[in-house]
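User: Can you recover a sequence for this backbone? Please restate the input before giving your answer.

Assistant: Of course. Working from this structure:
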């Protein structure tokens, strides 16, 4: 009963205020109203210790959305879903996943360095009946930040920068990423959706962590690179036998940092000039990849000798001669080692910033030392045969098991043989068909035993050969 009375009286007070306001709007001249609003604001702010900053969705006359508003919107997706009571669901164009942001007229609180502040979202509905070609400008959305005036300096100089930086980072993370390839002197792209991650990459955990830490440190080191006066880029050389996960690692790197991939096919780049032009079109936040660098171009001393020998063979054979002429007509690449070095660390390489350059090769010893010296290729990563730790990652990924009675046998065999993660993965694949991990593990054991026998026979044959030679 008491509640009902309270409601009625509160209702009637609000009703009277609205009525007085309507009369005031109707009968008092604009100047008087403006004056009243000005002094009432001053009066309120005298007692009200909080500062409010409004961030509008559209600024000035422009029809483009404010970057700051978008950054704040992204920033607020971090804790909107757990804090706000009414949420708006949007699908991100990039990965089709749902993104939850707080709905209009919602408020969430957050702590920054022990300071409490509040974000609220508002919308002013434009009641004008004019027809607009820019419907977005009709409803004016905004975010409002409220905090105690005592923290004014800290919030303005520090917190807002933090919000913008984080918001932009979230945007980058959620954007649709692309895989570019060069063709006819142009980059063309498809959506990059490789599922590889460092979690699914089979390698020693310590090594994996070291690489991840290195990548994350690089991505956060803009200031550091500026301070030491170096272009914000880092070179990685991935080397090892086929099937050890070099390409998979590149995909995992791009996924970890949210970068695009530019898969540069050097053999279809005509000359250094074209290489430079392609380079200037590469955006920041990207991984530039040159796979099988040893096969891409005639870049090393050893390869020159080899090609010269090959050339002699070709000269002797008319069919080969004809085929070679056709290839060199359609593929007249004149990119040189110095052109490539310029690409990696010349003046041109600095445009864009935040770039990883990754070379892969199966034969590191074939590469010209100038190409891979430290400073150019900052980190050399050997991708090797599958060890037991790497096997356990694969077993967890493919079979969803972390231990099994057959593991001890596999541990022994795997340490005595050279099997690639790709081959191990092949044996763990059929699980979907048989449904029993044991079948997969037994098939792997069989393969490992065969490999071991082959290896033993090879060693024996070599020993016999040596004995014969010494006799
Ligand atoms: N370390 C690894 N972790 C997880 N999967 C791997 C790993 N190595 C290889 N694989 C599996 O094997 C397949 C082939 O690997 P990948 O293409 O990465 O090898 P690569 O080292 O790039 O070989 P190549 O030298 O022939 O280019 C991948 O699709 C992946 O499924
Ligand atoms: Mg590869």
């Amino acid at each position: 009963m008491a509640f009902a009375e309270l409601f009625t009286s509160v209702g009637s007070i609000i009703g009277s205020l609205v009525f007085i306001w309507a009369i005031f709007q109707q009968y008092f001249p604009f100047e008087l109203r403006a004056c009243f609003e000005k002094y009432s604001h001053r009066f309120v702010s005298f007692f009200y210790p909080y500062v409010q900053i409004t961030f509008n969705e559209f600024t000035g006359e422009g029809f483009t959305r404010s970057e700051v508003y978008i950054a704040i919107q992204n920033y607020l997706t971090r804790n909107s879903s757990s804090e706000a009571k009414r949420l708006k669901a949007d699908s991100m164009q990039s990965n089709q996943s749902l993104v939850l942001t707080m709905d209009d007229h919602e408020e969430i609180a957050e702590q920054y360095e022990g300071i409490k502040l509040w974000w609220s979202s508002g919308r002013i509905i434009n009641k004008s009946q004019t027809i607009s070609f820019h419907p977005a400008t009709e409803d004016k959305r905004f975010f409002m930040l409220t905090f105690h005036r005592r923290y004014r300096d800290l919030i303005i100089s520090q917190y807002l920068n933090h919000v913008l930086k984080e918001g932009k980072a979230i945007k980058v993370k959620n954007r649709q990423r692309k895989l570019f390839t060069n063709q006819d002197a142009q980059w063309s792209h498809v959506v990059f959706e490789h599922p590889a991650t460092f979690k699914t990459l089979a390698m020693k955990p310590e090594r994996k962590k070291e690489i991840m830490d290195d990548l994350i440190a690089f991505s956060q080191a803009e200031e550091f690179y500026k301070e030491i006066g170096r272009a914000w880029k880092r070179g990685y050389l991935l080397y090892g036998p086929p099937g050890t996960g070099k390409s998979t690692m590149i995909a995992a790197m791009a996924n970890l940092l949210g970068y695009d991939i530019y898969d540069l096919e050097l053999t279809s780049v005509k000359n250094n000039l074209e290489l430079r032009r392609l380079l200037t079109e590469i955006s920041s936040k990207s991984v530039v990849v040159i796979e099988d660098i040893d096969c891409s171009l005639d870049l090393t001393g050893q390869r020159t000798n080899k090609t010269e020998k090959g050339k002699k063979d070709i000269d002797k054979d008319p069919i080969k001669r004809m085929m070679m002429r056709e290839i060199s007509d359609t593929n007249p690449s004149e990119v040189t080692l110095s052109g490539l070095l310029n690409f990696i660390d010349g003046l041109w390489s600095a445009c864009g910033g935040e770039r990883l350059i990754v070379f892969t090769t199966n034969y590191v010893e074939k590469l010209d030392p100038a190409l891979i010296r430290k400073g150019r290729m900052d980190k050399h990563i050997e991708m090797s045969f599958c060890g037991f730790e790497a096997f356990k990652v694969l077993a967890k990924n493919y079979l969803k098991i972390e231990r099994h009675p057959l593991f001890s046998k596999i541990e022994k065999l795997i340490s005595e043989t050279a099997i690639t993660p790709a081959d191990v993965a092949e044996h763990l694949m059929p699980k979907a068909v048989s449904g029993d991990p044991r079948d997969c593990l037994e098939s792997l054991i069989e393969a490992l035993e065969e490999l071991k026998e082959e290896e033993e026979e090879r060693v024996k044959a070599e020993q016999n050969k040596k004995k014969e030679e010494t006799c």
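That completes the design. Residues 246-247, 291, 360 surround magnesium ion (ligand 2) (CB under 6 Å).
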